[in-house]
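Lecture notes, part 5. Sequence design as translation. It can be helpful to think of inverse folding as translation between two languages: the language of shapes and the language of residues. The source text, in structure tokens, appears below.
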């Protein structure tokens, strides 16, 4: 059985993206939202990011929004 904590393992790769996801959650918390953040990763690079904006969207126009769709809508770069 391989060590899941060794560099290069899937576990190690996933851990690299926890901090950016938490940073997105901090944005939600600062906006008085439930602190949920997300990053979209492709080939070990962040290609999208987002955070919970449920309350902001409800104040703006009513429909629910969450971090996942925001991350997918963001163009790479």
């Amino acid at each position: 059985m391989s060590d899941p904590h060794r560099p290069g393992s899937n576990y190690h790769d996933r851990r690299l993206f926890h901090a950016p996801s938490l940073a997105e959650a901090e944005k939600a918390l600062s906006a008085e939202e439930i602190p949920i953040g997300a990053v979209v990763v492709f080939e070990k690079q962040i290609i999208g990011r987002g955070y919970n904006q449920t309350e902001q969207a409800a104040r703006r126009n009513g429909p629910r929004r969450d971090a996942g769709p925001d991350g997918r809508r963001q163009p790479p770069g």
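The translated text above is only one of many valid answers, since several sequences can fold into similar shapes. The chain is about 45% helix and 15% strand.
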